[in-house]
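fyi for ur records
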Amino acid sequence: MKQDAKTVTMNILNGLSVGIIVALVPGAILNAIVKLLLPSFPQLAVVTYMTTAAMTLLPALSAVCVGMIAKFTPIQTSSLALAAIIGAGNYHLTKTGLTVAGTGDVINLAITLAIGYLVILLLGNALKAYTILLIPSLVLLIAGGVGMLTLGPVSGITKYIGVLVHDITALQPIVMGVLMGIIFAVLIVTPISTVGIATAISLSGIGAGSANLGIVGASFALAVYGWKANPLGTSLAHFLGSPKMQMANILSKPKLFLPMAINAGILGGIGAALNIQGTPASAGFGFSGLVGPLAALDAMKAVTVGNILELTLLFFVLPIGLAYISYLLFTKTLRYQVPEDYALHYD
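which gave:
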């Protein structure tokens, strides 16, 4: 089994992207609806439990997707999933047993998957009849072990980025809004967790609102840029789910950061000018699950027709308009990009 470095890298990034979408989309689509219906239908609380449980399986799902894309055998793919669970760090050993919370550190998950991937490539089919006995243990111990060792230092990267982001909140509000929108738009299409950053620095108020709008701007822009190359459902998933699905495409062609970052900066600045706010828990979500818009509405302290219209304009109408103008400029006029740059294939 011979694969070059580019193939391995793209397989890992694509697998991560698909795993993230599969794990997060149920919560993104259902949780906001359930939250609104819970007072009348408390039985729906089980749906939130189900979507939360699905999120914690992100490491294993991503590993399975990587294995499928790489054409690994079921034994190799399952072994990679075992290592991923350990490397992601969302399982913790306590005095009472194992506990699981969150999705884990996606950067460290990527490192763990890369180590496991290389172990599988190196061993190939050399173990023959002993494959089922040795591959699960070797991949778990080697890749999972390395993942445990790197988890602390890698998590420190997220904290360091958080410190830099926190410093930006001290700037003039509109400048801060523009920069916050751009930063979170860039982060949302990398393995770095925007929710983790926002929570770590307790990002709230205008900073959180601008971060939300930056992600919204990126989400709608990416959906529009690739709408001719992707099915309708895939395009909708960019903002209903997560724009992280474009991670492999954008990281392999860094110039694609520019168009969406401009949209994100514009929206973030407008949000700051209009005093749109958010919370640490909402700042990294954007439009997904209506978390961003609902947090902004809650901060307004009143549910009025004017407030709803303002948020509809900011979180839906304006992002679509900016995305289309940006599409005309960068795709049609400047030929800076083509829809195929954003094509996603899940077959």
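The mean pLDDT is 91. thats all i got for now
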